[in-house]
Specification:
Distance between the termini: 22 Å
Largest sheet: 5 strands, mixed
CATH architecture: Alpha-Beta Complex
CATH class: Alpha Beta
Number of helices: 6
Strand content: 15-25%
Radius of gyration: 14 Å
Order of helices and strands: HEHEHHHEEEH
Amino acid sequence: MITLKNMKEIIEKLINNHQTISTMESCTGGSLANSITNIEGSSEVFNFSAITYSNDFKVKMGVSKDIIDTYSVYSFEVANEMSKNISKFTNSDYGVGITGKLNRLDINNPYGQDDLVYISIYDKSKDITYNDNVKCTQDNRIANKELVINKVVEMLKEII
């Protein structure tokens, strides 16, 4: 379960550092944005969120179609494009990109592992991305989304 305490620590750090964050999520469907906005005061640091479930909307939000075609939509390369482009689009200090599959076959994108999610966090001030992935082996989508969000929180605690 996503603990409010951990997300609250992230929001407080961002507030104290006068920094902002935005997200571009695919398989998590806005779960990260929801967990951020569950924290009082998050409006001071949370700029924007995009849920880009389809490849078309990833491209409309700045992800290179060539990157998707070359590496597949389920890759660190696409997650990196997502995190960097959402940061640039919103002028946020941090951008988070999430793409992958939550233990389910995707008939529109049948390649890649069905239980692997790719996470990228872009730090604008350093112009670098941090990557990790999560193996989603739970029996339901909500539990798998929680695994992913908890990993993002762990990463943000280390980065911010």
